[in-house]
Amino acid sequence: MMAATEEYDVIVLGAGPVGENVADRTRAAGLSTVIVESELVGGECSYWACIPSKALLRPVIARADARRLPGLRQAVDGPLENAAVFGRRDEYVAHWKDDGQVSWLDSIGVDLVRGHARLAGPKRVVVTGADGQEHHLTARQAVAVCTGSDAALPGLPGLAEVRPWTSREATSASTVPGRLAVVGGGVVATEMATAWQALGSEVTVLVRGSGLLERMEPFVGELVAKSLTEAGAQVRTGTSVTGVQRDTPDGPVTLTLAGGERLEADEVLFATGRTPRTGDIGLETVGLEPGAWLRVDDSCRVSDVPGGWLYAVGDVNHRALMTHQGKYQARIAGAAIGARAQGVPLLETDPWGAHAATADTAAVPQVVFTDPEVAAVGLTAAQAEADGRRVRVVDYDLARVSGAGLYGEGYRGQARMVVDLDRGHLIGVTFVGPGVGELLHSATVAVAGEVPLERLWHAVPAFPTISEVWLRLLETYRG
């Protein structure tokens, strides 16, 4: 006997922050919505990424800040209380239970189906539960793929037997390895190297490229590498891993490096990129390639599927792999789904329109919670020049800002703004230094709002704060 099919206006695959926001916006538009999740409601960010990593890093950064202040330095000279750090992290992730998130879905009237979802043709989804039972769903309006991404691992022989850490293990472990090798030089690599070095690991960072955080301004990676090295970590650039081996289940990992050198560690973290979680969701039933990133328009509607019913939101579309950008896309997509369901003939898809995720290309903000902190939005100078823009780059030493001195002795930092000379506004801003994360939204407003520099001059920063760097940058620009 064939299972009954339930019909909804919208089916959302994946109940992470992105899927939750799509569901929230479609329900607000009056559309019946069901969300499908195979793991925990709340997704990667809530349990294995943003939230636990920042919970681990906050005591590390607070101690680093305290050590810069005479009168407080002596009070924080000892090691971190690791059990307390892990305990606070566990509370922040609700001990890996999703009751609170499920209650929120109930409160907004979104149904939840647990299990693995696969497309079964246009607007059709089959969900297989843990007990093997199938649940058949049909969408009247749209299906939104919000399944996120997984850590990408290199194709090294025997890697699975080594049981490497990925971002999941690095954010959820409660035992400090004596020696930790971190393979990669991006955000996950630098943040987790910062955290685990402070928790007591002997950390070695192995970077294939020439420096850390290479997608950002060059001075970013230089300052972060210097700080990691001073804290006791080793940062080795131009280094590739060609082999891994763990001879016994509880024994050390041996990494073979290009050139034949061997490095021994108790655990190895591979932070070498992300891959879309689209390999087993039935893409082939609608003419798409399984395991591929999904190409979308600015309203996050999949471009290669007839009928305009399939959306891909968040990591799966590869536009900007950050939780806040995925949630932004979700608000855009939810509004677009609602408008199309209501028969709106023309959506606002011009740049900065209500149904266009313009910020994904023009004003993506990001904070890297290392010591020093990194905050950036928009284009780097190199990216702007490669894009054919006529720009002027303005740099300023953050240590010269009066508010920086309040953060303690030996403040190191740098600020850069990239000015589009033809249009007279900012297209990129980068800050590095303690406390700069809280500067970022002002930069994002300036970039997304295309605020003319003549008007920005009248946005007076309070004294004495590090936000006074805005005045110093503008003074330097004006000459």
TrEMBL record:
GO BP terms: 2-oxoglutarate metabolic process
- Which residues hold NAD(+)? 184-191, 273
Cofactor binding remark: Binds 1 FAD per subunit.
Which superkingdom?
A: Bacteria
Instruction: Give the binding site residues for FAD.
Output: 54, 147-149, 315
List required co-factors. FAD
- Give the matching InterPro entries: Class-I_Pyr_Nuc-Dis_Oxidored, FAD/NAD-bd_sf, FAD/NAD-binding_dom, FAD/NAD-linked_Rdtase_dimer_sf, Pyr_nuc-diS_OxRdtase, Pyr_nucl-diS_OxRdtase_dimer
The terms under GO molecular function for this entry are: dihydrolipoyl dehydrogenase (NADH) activity; flavin adenine dinucleotide binding
Q: Which UniProt keywords apply?
A: FAD, Flavoprotein, NAD, Nucleotide-binding
Which cysteines share a disulfide bond?
45-50
Domain Pyridine nucleotide-disulphide oxidoreductase dimerisation residues, every copy: 364-470
- Name all FAD/NAD(P)-binding domain ranges: 8-325
Which protein family is it in? Answer: Belongs to the class-I pyridine nucleotide-disulfide oxidoreductase family.
Q: What is this protein called?
A: Putative oxidoreductase
Q: Which organism is it from?
A: Streptomyces sparsogenes DSM 40356
